[in-house]
Every structure is written in structure tokens, then in C-alpha cells.
Amino acid sequence: MNELPQQLVNGLLLGAMYGLVAIGYTMVYGIVQLINFAHGEIFMTGAFGALTVYAYVLPDGTSMWVALPLMLIGAVLVAVVVAVGAERFAYRPLRNAPRLAPLITAIGLSLALQQAVWAWYPEAKSARTFPQIDGGPFHLGNVTIQTGDIFLLAAAPISMAVLAYFVMKTRTGRGMQATAQDPDTAKLMGVNTDRIIVIAFALGAVFAAVGGVAYGLKYGQVDFRMGFILGLKAFTAAVLGGIGNIYGAMIGGVVLGIAETLATAYIADLPGMEKFGSQSWADVWAFVLLILVLLLRPQGLLGERVADRA
Amino acid sequence: MTALLEVEDLRVAYGKIEAVKGISFKVEAGEVVTLIGTNGAGKTTTLRTLSGLLRPVGGQIKFQGRSLKKTPAHQVVSLGLAHSPEGRHIFPRMTIEDNLRLGAFLRSDKQAIDKDMQRAYDLFPILGERRKQAAGTLSGGEQQMLAMGRALMSQPKLLMLDEPSMGLSPIMMQKIMATIAELKAQGTTILLVEQNAQAALSLADHGHVMEVGNIVLSGTGQDLLHDESVRKAYLGED
User: Fold this and answer.
1) ipTM of the complex in this document
2) Record: contact A187-B53, CB cut-off 8 A
3) This prediction's pTM
4) What are the structural domain ranges in chain A?
């Protein structure tokens, strides 16, 4: 049991990545009640944006300490352009359509984005190698942190703090809260809700892009289908935390990451459970957790229901 | 002198169904004008069209001489037209203070905003006592106060109140009506939509009676209050 702290840290890091992507699901859902199933692909295009900067823009052999900030900018640019384009041309025309229409559109968009990236990167069917940071790993007592995870360790809390400040303290952030709670009345206050929707998509894309870079650094490779399962997990994290709640997204991500990691590490030790501890069962445990939370606390961990008196 | 608000032959439709069928009325600065009538008469539709949430299919809306027909809803408030909607629609998960601040969303004169917040708290002391509380925890009448306070935070030239007395206890209703009278005394121009015709007409300078999308009768508040057909139809006398 000496490895427990290590497993917790592994779970925390995995969960932080889920959380970064979950923020996009939860923000867009909170504002327009749309589950943007193409968000996993926004995350993927972000990772490829970073890779493109490294492979085709920067000279060979650029140090990662120089390259990483530029890659991050590339990732954010690509992801934001894709997300804002999706909102403008795929979702906005369907704003008043029945709920199923944008949902199906999202699934179509998700496939289209996968194929587009594959077309640009024909060799991306098998994974593309993602550049790595040199040095490390780092040791804190018994806990080892892989070099690739250092980025995540810094990026997740910084992103979260910036987002919380933005939503709680800025005028646009308050306009965003108002739009989430009552869009028509927000308009009466002078909030340009169309603009708020674009900002929600764009912000979600920024965090997905950061998550995409984190994924590349963590696993050392990216491929055009990487957004599918990770997108599902992040969506699970968003629901787990209480969809529409940005803190819930991060907390849901961390809970999911830790639960998944601990299940993989320890379930096989339980009598009769030897088969169920492998990595391929991790996804199953993640969704079992989701089902349990939905049964016991349907609004999610941080979801709240304040009475809206008529 | 042109009126503050001029509505001419306004027509609004939901799909093929016309809810407002060509109404005209004016609101002069400093006046209280009321639209009364039963449910479905088109009163709320009229207000929602004035504030840009709905688009008219015909007619004119002029505010300070400027056409509002194509102005998006989020820009209407900056012209000086504030709308406290039917059903109050406060932001339930925000504090009372934040709700009031949202009323001043487009203003950046921080000191004047703080002063207006204080004014709202003076007008409705209960809001001041609970300023840090989530607005969804307020009672219906308190939420109505908040909705009115919030609308005032934009320093409107014209305040539109949609059914402020709806669903309130008689005591709370009296309090809300007294506040409207107080605002009137301070010189606020008000367009008041009410089902409670007695209360609305008592404090209105002018009133218009709406029936299924048309204005069927207009006059001063006092005239309408004493009009036989109004007394029969809306004041429950026979």
C-alpha cells in the first residue's frame, strides 16, 4: 500500500486533464443547453495545432522551453478557430431548431473533424510522435512525477484560477452567468447573448487546447481519434461534477481520474476480481462511477437546485 | 414636442397568429401609462416587442423620436428603456447585490452605480438586509422588488413594469403599488401592464384597455376608472 500516494497523484493528473476538457462541455451546456459532442475533437485539433507548430513552423531542434509556449499558442489558435467556426456555421443556424438537430450536427461535425485532420496528416492514423520535454522525472518523497506531467501540474490550476476570476469578477463573466440563468432577461440587462455564446465556445476551446497539449506531453503521441474516448470521459466528468458548473467540471475530472486510477491499481487485488483490474477495464469503472452518481445525486456533485420561484 | 414613446399601428405575430393587431399609444415624459386587460390581450407581447425580445410584423415604435424596430434587445436598455418582465425573472443563483449590478450592466460610472444601489436599498430595505443572499431564496414579493430595483439600475428614461402585482398577497401588492406611486412622484416615467385594473388606473395618467390584440378604449386613468364598461368588465361590478 506504499504506492497509494503515487496512485493518487497519477489519478489527480489524469483527472486534471479530464477537467480541462470538461470545462468546455460544461460552459457550452450551461449557456445554450447543447452537448457539444464535437468538443473532444476540439481537444484533438488543439493537440495537432501544437504539433503543427513544432513540426512545420519552428526550425528543427528548437528547445522545448522555447517551443512549448509557441506550440500552446498554436494549439489555442487552431482550437478556438474550429470551435468558433462550429458555433457560427453549424450550431447558430440551429439555435431554434428541435434539440436533436444540433446534437446530430455535433456528431457529424466530430466525424468531419477527425477526417479533416487525418487528411492533413495522412500518417496520423497510427499515432504521431509528440515532442517531449527533456529532463526529469521528478521525485517528491516516494512519489514520482513524469516530466510530461509537469506541464499539466502547472497548467490546470492556473487555467482554473484564470477562469474563476473571469467568470466571477469581470463584467463579461457576470454577463455569462446571467445568460446561463435566463438568456432573455440577460438581454434586457444589455448583455449581448450572441457574443457570450461565442465567448463560451472560445473559452472552452482554450482549455481543451491546453488539455490537448497536456495529453501530447503526457503520452508522447497524438492521433486523430484521441478526442473520442477522452471526450466521453470529460463529458462524464462534467456530468459527475454537475453540468453547467465550472468548478464541478474540474472536481468531476479529478474524482473520475482518481477513481479510475485506483480501480485499475487495486481492484485486481480483491478476491475473485483478478480479471477486472487491467487498463482496459478503467473505462468501465469510470462509467460505473457515473451511473452511481447519477443514481444517488442526479444533479452531480456540485449541481445545485435553488428554487426558481415563478 | 414629441412623446417619449410613440407606438403606431404596432402588429406582432407568433407564426400566423397575430397577438397584437395594430395598436397605437403614446407615453409622455413624467407620465404613468397603463395597459390593462385580461390574459391573452397582448399586453406582455407589446412590452416584449418594445424591448426588442420580439420583432413586430408591422407598425412603428419610436423612442425619443428614434425607431426601435430593428434595435437588438441588448441595445434597447442603453437607450433608456428598462423592462421588468412578467414573472419577475430575477437571476436566482446570483446574490441580490449581483442582480442589481446586472441592472447596471452597461454602465461604467462606478460611484453613481453604488449610489443607485443605495437608492434601491432605501426604496426596498429588505433587499439591503439580504444583499449577500441568493435571489432565488426571496419570497415572490421580495423578488418583485428586486426586479423593479434591478430595472431602475439602468437609470431608465422609461420604466416598463409587466404585472408587478401578479401572484402577490394583498399586503405585498399594496406595497408594490405604493412604490410605483412613489416612483411616479419622483418623476419616473412608467409604462405599467396590469391585470389589477383598479390599482393601475388609480395611479395612471392615461390608460388603455386591451382586448384580444386591440386597444378598445383609451382615456385618463380617472375616466377609465369611472367608465361603466370598464367597471363591468375589469372591476367586477355589475
Assistant:
1) 0.94
2) yes
3) 0.91
4) 16-226
